[in-house]
TrEMBL record:
One Gene Ontology MF term: oxidoreductase activity
Cofactor: FAD
Superkingdom as given in the UniProt entry: Eukaryota
Range of residues in the leader sequence: 1-17
Pfam family, one: BBE
Keyword rRNA processing belongs to the record: no
Source taxonomy: Eukaryota, Fungi, Dikarya, Ascomycota, Pezizomycotina
Protein name: FAD binding domain-containing protein
Organism of provenance: Lentithecium fluviatile CBS 122367
Keywords, comma-separated and alphabetical: FAD, Flavoprotein, Oxidoreductase, Signal
Amino acid sequence: MVPRILSILLAIGTAIGEPLHAPKCRYIPGDKGWPSTKEWSQLNNTVGGRLIATVPVAHVCHTGGVFSGYNEASCADLKVAIQEEGAATLQPQPGEPMNPYFYNLTCNPFTPVDQPCELGTRAVYSINVSGAADVQAGLKFARQNNVRLVIKNTGLDYLGKSTGKGSLSFWVHNLKTLETNKKFSSSYYKGPAVKVGAGIIAGEVYEYVNAKGYRIVGPECGLCGFAGGYTQGVGHSQLTSAYGLAADQVLEWEVVTPTGQYLIATPEKHQDLYWALAGGGPGTYGVVLSVTVKAYPDGPVAGGTLVFNNTNSDAYWEAVGLWYKMGPSMVQDSPKNVQFFVSNATLWVFAFVMPDQDTSAIDNILAPFLPELKKRSLPYELKTYNYTSYLENLRNSYGALPYGELCPVYPVLGSRLIPRRVVLDDTANKKLMDVYRKYTADEFGWFVGCSFIDTAEGSSVRPKHPDNSVNPYWRDSIAYCNPNNPWHWDDPAHSIRDKNQLSGEFFPAMEAATPGTGVYLNEIDSLYTGDWKDTMYGVHYEKLLKIKHKYDPYDLMYGHFAVGADEFYLDAQERLCKVKY
Ligand SMILES: Cc1cc2nc3c(=O)[nH]c(=O)nc-3n(C[C@H](O)[C@H](O)[C@H](O)COP(=O)(O)OP(=O)(O)OC[C@H]3O[C@@H](n4cnc5c(N)ncnc54)[C@H](O)[C@@H]3O)c2cc1C
Ligand SMILES: *[C@@H]1O[C@H](CO)[C@@H](O)[C@H](O)[C@H]1NC(C)=O
Ligand SMILES: *[C@@H]1O[C@H](CO)[C@@H](O)[C@H](O)[C@H]1NC(C)=O
Ligand SMILES: *[C@@H]1O[C@H](CO)[C@@H](O)[C@H](O)[C@H]1NC(C)=O
Ligand SMILES: *[C@@H]1O[C@H](CO)[C@@H](O)[C@H](O)[C@H]1NC(C)=O
Ligand SMILES: *[C@@H]1O[C@H](CO)[C@@H](O)[C@H](O)[C@H]1NC(C)=O
Ligand SMILES: *[C@@H]1O[C@H](CO)[C@@H](O)[C@H](O)[C@H]1NC(C)=O
């Protein structure tokens, strides 16, 4: 309906000689304005034959639809692969998002064979990006032909920002360059640095820098991207207390802006773009080709695990509350990081990360806590190790790289920052524990993954960093905590219920128990109902929006909950439309 009225209005506009402006909504296949095969083929020529038409991986599981390609054996293999090694199976596929919610029931191996395989919200075409010229060609094409753009690196995004109905995708996966500069020198940093191509994942960069004798701030999960969503979206790390957040590490961005300008943004040149890219959310200000970050000399790291179980619910939850209360003393003004899961059954510290220390550092931080477990007759098991490098500790806690084994690929998940004042105050602490206790109950089955970190400004431990757009709520947090539930392949309705419970009840309860802080903008459910501009971007939102408008005057960049997102909406057929135009 809307598009028809629009095209009439446009026709009238043209007839009376008014300037023709872009339609309100981006075209999707089937729309009259959708580019012809010939136009796509011209784009393909411009990008040297690097244009790929998306064919859903699960087409081998379906007999209906344009993409049908049923093959019993391939489909059986795919089912196993997607559940057991989802990252290895889907990450390297152009146009394929990782999170099943975003292709939903349109073509997946677990829906009935005779259900047609359709693209759904997958990109229609991807450019296999090899450099700036490919991106410039795609930007120009999208603008001239009114086509929606997305960027896919790993496709992990929880908000579906790396996929979109009717879109042309910049697939940056093959930008696999890594380069060390032992003597990076600028007014804002002198020392070792590493330049990481946009397609590199954490596991790859860790192995690379380890071989050179360095460690860097990067994701815990090997399968997570590096230069894309992760660093642009703030990025937490096991080394955050030691060196700062991922965005704090950035020395240079190599980027193509939405108007097609290729540039290097630094704290001195194109400073506003540098600032926005470092923490202001991915996929909004430009297409990053590489990021250069600080590197640090590697050395020993003490690690280990601690487990205690719920053998007496009241005693257990009291102990969990005490554990949180001691969080600040464990990490504040120190390079230490402690990562753990809390469920109704168990508190499992799966990684202590004590850079440049030995296991006595773990014994020391636990000295006030372990007697509290004994006092409550809660048996525990503690194991500690002296590792020779950061990588050795990471591998022992998260599993073999590059992908790692600990991180579930498609959980239903949120992430709340936890302020120091909440865990330290007995009443507030108890309120938070009551929320945990309710939603981790067996009937709901949530567990909460949490990390104690310190990111306060002005610390004597962490190096200084250039000014960036990291939401200041991070700086007075002592932890970020992720409610988690696995994806139910055999019963997607169950996962939809989990998403609704998370966004409708559990997460709002966590927010109410932790007032005056924010969320991790990368790790939030797509149905999130909170005050996203504040919780994700805080005081920086308006400034970020100005920078977005400056660099993206044609409104080519959009992402759910990205800066400027509310200037767009999706219509009933999921066309991306502008609110004002
Ligand atoms: C299994 C899993 C493990 C995770 N582990 C961690 C972790 O250990 N630590 C952590 O902090 N976070 C982690 N995250 C969250 C993660 O940081 C986000 O999902 C992030 O969006 C991933 O970015 P990506 O580039 O890999 O993914 P994509 O989905 O490909 O992209 C995410 C966003 O970044 C944009 N983008 C991608 N590449 C570029 C580029 N080159 N230029 C501009 N924009 C770009 C996209 O447009 C999109 O908006 C994890 C997520 C999952 C699902
Ligand atoms: C683009 O061109 C290459 C090389 O000719 C071809 O292999 C590929 O199929 C083309 N892509 C599309 C979408 O037509
Ligand atoms: C996925 O399917 C469920 C169940 O049909 C529906 O409620 C949900 O809105 C769908 N999600 C998307 C992103 O289309
Ligand atoms: C993408 O390009 C790379 C070279 O940059 C090439 O090795 C790879 O095969 C291409 N992938 C696809 C799916 O076309
Ligand atoms: C905790 O429970 C698990 C599972 O029942 C058990 O294997 C483990 O030994 C228990 N650990 C402690 C410290 O009691
Ligand atoms: C780690 O090394 C320190 C210093 O050498 C030593 O005291 C400690 O016992 C070692 N820890 C373990 C678990 O081996
Ligand atoms: C939590 O775990 C305890 C110990 O296993 C169990 O007895 C209890 O029923 C569980 N509580 C809820 C609310 O599920």
